[in-house]
Write a structure and sequence with these properties.
The complex is a heterodimer of chains A (626) and B (352).
Chain A: E1 11-13, E2 16-24, H1 29-43, E3 46-52, E4 67-75, E5 86-91, H2 94-100, E6 104-113, H3 119-124, E7 143-147, H4 149-156, H5 164-168, H6 171-182, H7 188-198, H8 202-221, E8 228-230, E9 239-245, H9 246-260, E10 265-269, H10 276-283, E11 290-294, H11 298-310, E12 314-319, H12 321-337, E13 341-347, H13 364-369, E14 379-381, H14 385-402, E15 405-411, H15 412-416, E16 418-421, E17 475-477, H16 492-507, E18 525-532, H17 536-548, E19 553-558, E20 560-562, H18 568-572, E21 575-582, H19 587-596, E22 601-604, H20 613-625
Parallel strand pairs in A: 1-8, 2-5, 5-6, 6-7, 10-11, 10-12, 12-13, 13-15, 14-15, 18-19, 18-21, 21-22
Antiparallel strand pairs in A: 2-4, 3-4, 9-16, 14-20
Helix pairs in contact in A: 1-6, 1-7, 6-8, 7-8, 9-10, 9-14, 11-12, 17-20
Chain B: H1 38-52, E1 59-63, E2 78-81, H2 87-97, E3 102-108, H3 109-115, H4 117-126, E4 130-136, H5 171-177, E5 182-187, H6 191-203, E6 207-213, H7 225-228, H8 233-236, E7 237-240, E8 247-248, E9 253-258, E10 261-266, H9 285-291, E11 306-313, H10 319-334, H11 339-344, E12 349-351
Parallel strand pairs in B: 1-2, 1-3, 3-4, 4-6, 5-6, 7-11
Antiparallel strand pairs in B: 5-11, 8-9, 9-10
Helix pairs in contact in B: 1-6, 2-10, 3-4
Classes of the chains: A alpha/beta (626), B alpha/beta (352).
Chain lengths: 626, 352
């Protein structure tokens, strides 16, 4: 794209690179990150991302509280996590540097917007006596490149009629252009994006494009940068790919499930971080028979979903921990009604409001145990953004085919993270068959039979009769029901029978699971790592590495948290030790101990941040030694 | 003397030419206390349903928790006895996907005005097409006699031995405030009036809100007797009819609107006549806001009579109509969903 008279700068090849973009939450850093991710994915790299943003939408400019980050790991090799430590740290101000310097590898590259390091910025970022780290020698162990992005962007936009504020908004495009140059990528995808976004505002389009190109040429012409990097395409399986975040995956899995069941989808939801993107995504697909209902509160969200399922649609609700707490009573109702319902919990740091924008796996007990009475509800957990699609689809399958509420656990880490997805063909997804029952029209022989709404099939599943079907009128509710008829019953023996029937029905859902499968490692040996949810990539990376080093370490990753896979108990017995890494104090560990009487050990991190693979590796080694 | 004429269509007209009389009672034993006002309401609803020509399978009753909320069990329709206060949420979801059904919601003063207060106002502002029957007995009956959000201040109950310190809700003023499109009041002891009000409610498209004064003869006996007993009824009850002057006390008294202030006129002296009185127009939202505020404590000297009948009717598209219209439009513009295209998304790349 450039005509350059100078000799080309040398290009250094890397197998994988971790880059972290950080700035004020108003700096447009998330956009820079997602655009650079898209460019790399399109080029053929394997990618994994981790956006990390503050709970405040616009915290005071320049403060540590306002720092937003976007971490990208891309490579010519398979990538399982957004990376432990970064190779390149791009910071728009002093606070961004201060908040993220500990994530940079020794010798790593810092690209700093020097305009964001004035006295005020330095003071806000907590640098003592406003000493400038870019010039005072404190960053001697890193390669520091100070670039006055603000000034360079303004210069590039000298001819523009835009105001200074709008010009400064183009800074993120300057950075993107420069990073594209640095990693030998083209600006094409970003230009296409700008055209789509600003097509109707030519002055903004022009300014952003100019900033993008200026950033690219700055890399080429500036004497400061002597080397470019190149990350070749990864040997990913052949096929067509797209990028997907976990929340998108969940939304698409739900729609695919409804479509495969030939049902309309009703989504009742109240906005909450980090689950709202599911609502946004679903609301764009009304042509699939999707109705989204932004309810007055979390209780109304689940209540409306129950009402929709009662009416014969697929009712779904989603939230995060505090919202799920509010839905608890209604979950018990759905369980008593024995109607299909999917409840998604995009977990975040708790308890109470907790850490809204940070991740955690501390709602497992809430999902499995957290209801009044004997209230078994199947619980699934997704492990990656792609897995969100698969598990959302399975949640729909189980809910509809077994007439039960189902909880799907994801978390903020995978919900916002993205990876390349070799998406399936619609035909390859199985049909879903709810246990509908034929109407009994007056005058036909069937009309004479009494309808028993709680008569069960061999799997313990009751029929789904929909209002409007003749001859199937019945009453259901949250009060204990008489077996078969569903009428109110306070009979003590009937209550015990119903509690057992509901439990057996849910237990039998394990019959449909595929046999348990190790993710990696030997079928027996020293240690089994049992993971669940979003720790997948970090555990996989660590386990593969240790196996390469000759350790008899295996990794199994659970997707069915309740009921467990029947093969899990026997599998646990094949190893001398069991280690359970979790972003909580040991919730799965306790469930495994209770269920299988196994001496499972914990590796626990409760910092609102995901495990690094190094933390897992060290944890496994320590357990092996103990 | 109580008739409820209106400008809306009368019930049954659109449904069927010659409805057969259908028995809507279920086989379940009714478990309300003997003498409870709920029996009367159940009977009138059954009668109305039978007259309306609806098919049993097209009718759904949703309730919350409380004595009134046992209602669905006693009808041979589809029904759900849900959880406390949440019936409006169930109704909202059900109507969103099933605009074809006749949906009724049965609730009480605790269920609707206290624990479910948030949901009821949102049901009303959205104008979900449902007939809401609020059984107001000014007491918590199922939990054995605590004061409710409609109990008068000072009410001595099991939880308020020194009298309630709470100011009560005026349910219909709340409904008007939330832009309800059909607002009415009736009482368990006047079956004919109730049946007529219910028929009007059923014919209305949108949230029809009917408050029924219902006697709890066990925990709050006689709470409404000033309105229901023959001796006191004429002086305290104002039956309102569209297009008719507001008259009560057997026509010897009337209500005049002096600016924004309602005044009682004595028509017996010859100084005033019915022509001087406020003529009820159920389509007048401003006046309806005044009418729902006729809520004086009947024990006070010179108290305004309490209105019964249809206060207000407005035409506004229902929530489910608007939702379904969006789905229809999305299908027209984008075509019926193509799952392959959806999974593929907007940007793809190919490897190999």
């Amino acid at each position: 794209m450039s005509i350059n008279t100078k000799p080309p700068k040398p290009v250094e090849e890397r197998s994988n690179v971790v880059i972290l973009f950080a700035g004020d939450s108003g700096d447009g850093i998330q956009l820079t990150g997602t655009q650079f991710t898209g460019t790399n994915a399109l080029f053929g790299n394997d990618v994994s991302t981790f956006p990390n943003y503050p709970a405040e939408i616009r915290a005071p400019i320049g403060t540590l509280a306002g720092v937003s980050g976007f971490q990208l790991h891309f490579g010519s090799v398979e990538i399982f996590t957004p990376g432990d430590q970064c190779d390149v740290l791009v910071v728009m101000n002093a606070a961004a540097l201060s908040a993220n310097l500990d994530k940079l590898k020794p010798g790593g590259i810092i690209i700093a917007n020097s305009d964001g390091f004035d006295k005020k910025n330095l003071r806000l970022a907590g640098f003592i006596d406003a000493a400038d780290p870019l010039t005072d020698g404190s960053l001697v162990n890193f390669q520091v490149h100070a670039v006055d992005v603000t000034k360079l962007t303004r210069t590039a936009l000298e001819d523009s009629t835009l105001g200074m504020k709008e010009k400064d908004r183009c800074k993120n495009m300057f950075v993107l252009g420069f990073i594209n140059w640095m990693f030998s990528r083209e600006n094409t995808l970003a230009e296409g994006f700008l055209e789509k976004k600003f097509g109707k505002k030519p002055d903004l389009l022009e300014a952003n494009r100019k900033a993008l190109i200026a950033g690219y040429f700055y890399g080429e012409t500036s004497e400061t940068f002597t080397t470019r990097f190149e990350v070749k395409a990864a040997p990913l399986p052949k096929g067509t790919y797209r990028a997907i975040t976990g929340n998108q995956g969940t939304a698409l899995g739900l729609i695919a499930g409804a479509r495969k069941a030939k049902l309309d989808l009703f989504y009742g939801s109240y906005p909450i971080t980090p689950a709202s993107e599911i609502l946004h995504e679903l609301s764009r697909h009304k042509n699939f028979g999707v109705i989204t209902f932004q309810a007055e509160d979390e209780i109304a969200a689940i209540g409306s979903a129950i009402g929709a399922s009662y009416g014969g649609a697929l009712g779904i609700t989603a939230s995060s921990g505090p919202g799920i707490a509010l839905k608890t009573e209604a979950m018990g109702l759905a369980l008593m009604l024995e109607i299909p319902l999917v409840i998604v919990n995009v977990q975040r740091g708790g308890p109470s409001t907790g850490l809204p924008t940070k991740t955690e796996q501390a709602d497992l007990w809430q999902a499995v145990l957290g209801r009044n009475g004997e209230a078994p509800i199947p619980v699934l957990a997704a492990s990656t953004p792609i897995d969100c699609f698969d598990m959302a689809f399975e949640a729909v399958q189980i809910a509809l085919e077994h007439m039960t509420p189902v909880i799907l656990l994801t978390d903020g880490y995978i919900a916002n993270g993205s990876e390349p997805w070799r998406f399936p063909a619609a035909d390859s997804l199985p049909e879903i068959k709810p246990p509908f029952i034929a109407a009994r029209e007056a005058g036909t022989p069937s009309a004479a039979e009494p309808f028993l709404p709680y008569a069960r099939d061999e799997r313990g599943v009751r029929p789904w009769a929909i209002p409007g079907q003749a001859g199937l009128q019945h009453r259901i509710g949250g009060i204990e029901k008489q077996d078969l008829t569903g009428n109110i019953s306070y009979d003590p023996r009937n209550h015990e029978k119903m509690v057992r029937l509901r439990a057996e029905k849910v237990a039998r859902i394990a019959d449909r699971y595929k046999p348990i499968r190790l993710d990696s490692g030997p079928a027996e040996g020293e240690l089994l790592v049992v993971g669940w949810g979003s720790t997948y990539g970090a555990i996989r990376t660590a386990a593969l590495q240790l196996q390469k080093e000759g350790h008899a370490v295996a990794h199994v990753h659970l997707r069915h948290m309740f009921p467990f896979n029947k093969g899990l108990g026997p599998l646990l017995k094949q190893y001398k030790k069991v280690l359970v890494p979790e972003m909580n104090s040991g919730q799965l560990r306790q469930l495994l101990r209770a269920e299988f009487l196994v001496d499972a050990q914990g590796l626990n991190k409760i910092q609102g941040m995901p495990f690094t693979s190094e933390e897992i590796r060290v944890g496994i080694l320590n357990t092996l030694k103990s | 003397m109580s008739t409820v004429n209106g400008t809306s269509e009368m019930p049954g007209q659109a449904r069927s030419d010659k409805p057969e009389k259908v028995d809507f009672s279920s086989d379940q034993e009714i478990r309300w206390c003997p003498g409870c006002g709920d029996y009367s309401i159940l009977k009138q609803v059954e009668t109305l349903l039978a007259q309306s020509g609806k098919k049993k399978e097209d009718v759904v009753f949703i309730s919350g928790i409380g004595c009134s909320s046992r209602f669905p069990y006693y009808l041979d329709t589809y029904g759900m006895h849900s959880i406390h206060g949440r019936a409006p949420t169930i109704v909202s979801g059900l109507r969103s996907v099933r605009p074809d059904l006749s949906v009724w919601m049965v609730t009480g003063d605790g269920d609707a005005m206290s624990i479910g207060g948030n949901h009821i106002i949102h049901l009303l502002r959205r104008n979900v097409d449902v007939n809401v029957l609020l059984f107001n007995n000014q007491i918590y009956g199922l939990t054995k006699g605590q004061y409710s959000p409609t109990s008068p201040e000072g009410a001595v109950t099991r939880s308020t031995p020194m009298g309630s310190t709470d100011h009560p809700f005026n349910p219909l003023a709340l409904v008007k405030g939330a832009d309800g499109t059909f607002i009415a009041r009736s009482m368990d002891r006047d079956p004919k009036h109730m049946r007529e009000v219910l028929a009007r409610a059923d014919a209305h498209r949108g949230t029809s809100f009917v408050e029924v004064y219902q006697n709890c003869n066990v925990f709050n006996d006689g709470a409404f007797e000033v309105f229901t007993e023959k001796a006191s009824k004429p002086d305290h009850v104002l039956f309102i009819e569209h297009g008719k002057p507001l008259l009560f006390a057997n026509g010897t008294k009337g209500i005049k609107l002096d600016g924004m202030t309602p005044l009682i006129l004595d028509l017996s002296t010859g100084a005033h006549s019915a022509d001087d009185c406020w003529v009820h127009n159920e389509r007048d939202g401003f006046k309806a806001s005044i009418l729902v505020r006729l809520f004086d404590d009947p024990r006070l000297q010179g108290a305004m009579p309490r209105p019964f009948g249809v206060f207000y009717v407005a035409d506004r598209p229902t929530h489910e109509e608007k939702l379904q219209a969006q789905v229809k439009r999305a299908k027209e513009v984008k075509g019926p969903g193509d799952l392959d295209k959806l999974l593929q998304g907007e940007h793809t790349w190919t490897i190999g």
